[in-house]
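step=encode ok
step=design start
structure_in=
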């Protein structure tokens, strides 16, 4: 028997109208046999496509990029709600579904952040790594709150509102006078689109503060993770590591810890620390780098080794958590008769 219950408090001002008047239109087109988990993977596929499009077609005009961004983000955010509606409709809600949905969002959110910085390039390294670590920490603390309080909490202005605003931003970019405004200088050489970047950073920071305020303390494991993520981000910035590589390392380091947090909640296990080997390596590597005890070649070789190790570890954790919940995987939805 599936005794799973999805515990969520969602105070989004947009969600009720978004689901009733917009997502419901798509829901009518969804075959009953299509499982919620496949919908999750399909919506994630749109973000993955967006990531490769940005890196493979950097010569595309800003208008073409804006169209692709808007279409993919729309498909993603719709799919992010369709999977839950389908699971509820077919009585297939499960801990596996929640894991796939929210864990994919960890990387989806990181990719969305990355493509925004590409669209607004060049972004100063310090700003990039500062926002990146805030992005990763905001996702981590949200999952920690679910573990601590046994429920997810989404505020009045959350992910849905943020993605919808981004979609409208990219659509409005196609209107020449509005594009001209965003490209106009507002202060000290900074263009108007920096308003979007500032709002993005404030959203991440306020999420972290709001969650810690609700749980009333910072768990030791999360404190270790957030401090080491900050050290890692500063190390990558100081070493001049290019944005794509630095983004990948931080996303993997965060993903490894977040996978453990989600496993702890969904499978009733102990809250674990981020990977011990990598955590120690971050400290040692920082000391060696800032003390100039290591060559540039050795430093980069170690970073590549960290990237490879974390990639394997994240894949292993993902596969292991899915395997433990394999009884909830459906290739097609069971008959509801």
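sequence_out=
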């Amino acid at each position: 028997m599936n005794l799973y219950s999805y515990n969520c408090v969602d105070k989004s001002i947009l969600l009720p109208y978004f689901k009733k008047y917009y997502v419901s239109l798509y829901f009518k087109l969804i075959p009953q046999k299509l499982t919620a988990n496949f919908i999750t993977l399909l919506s994630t596929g749109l973000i993955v496509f967006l990531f490769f499009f940005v890196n493979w077609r950097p010569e595309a005009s800003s208008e073409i990029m804006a169209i692709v961004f808007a279409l993919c983000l729309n498909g993603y955010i719709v799919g992010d709600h369709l999977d839950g509606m389908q699971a509820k409709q077919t009585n297939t809600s499960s801990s596996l579904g929640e894991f796939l949905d929210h864990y994919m969002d960890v990387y989806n959110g990181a990719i969305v952040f990355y493509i925004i910085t590409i669209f607004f390039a060049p972004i100063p390294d310090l700003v990039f790594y500062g926002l990146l670590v805030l992005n990763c920490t905001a996702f981590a603390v949200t999952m920690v709150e679910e573990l601590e309080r046994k429920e997810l909490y989404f505020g009045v202005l959350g992910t849905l509102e943020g993605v919808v605003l981004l979609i409208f931003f990219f659509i409005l970019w196609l209107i020449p006078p509005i594009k001209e405004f965003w490209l106009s200088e507002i202060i000290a050489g900074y263009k108007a689109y920096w308003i979007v970047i500032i709002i993005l950073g404030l959203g991440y920071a306020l999420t972290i503060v709001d969650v810690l305020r609700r749980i009333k303390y910072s768990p030791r494991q999360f404190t270790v993770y957030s401090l080491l993520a900050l050290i890692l981000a500063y190390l990558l910035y100081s070493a001049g590591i290019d944005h794509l590589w630095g983004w990948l390392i931080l996303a993997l380091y965060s993903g490894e810890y977040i996978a453990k947090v989600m496993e702890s909640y969904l499978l009733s296990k102990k809250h674990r620390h981020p990977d011990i080997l990598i955590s120690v390596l971050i400290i040692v590597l920082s000391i060696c780098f800032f003390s100039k005890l290591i060559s540039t070649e050795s430093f980069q070789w170690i970073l590549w080794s960290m990237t490879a190790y974390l990639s394997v570890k994240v894949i292993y954790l993902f596969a292991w958590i899915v395997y433990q919940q394999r009884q909830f995987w459906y290739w097609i939805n069971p008959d509801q008769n």
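step=design ok
step=annotate ok -> The chain is about 70% helix and 5% strand.
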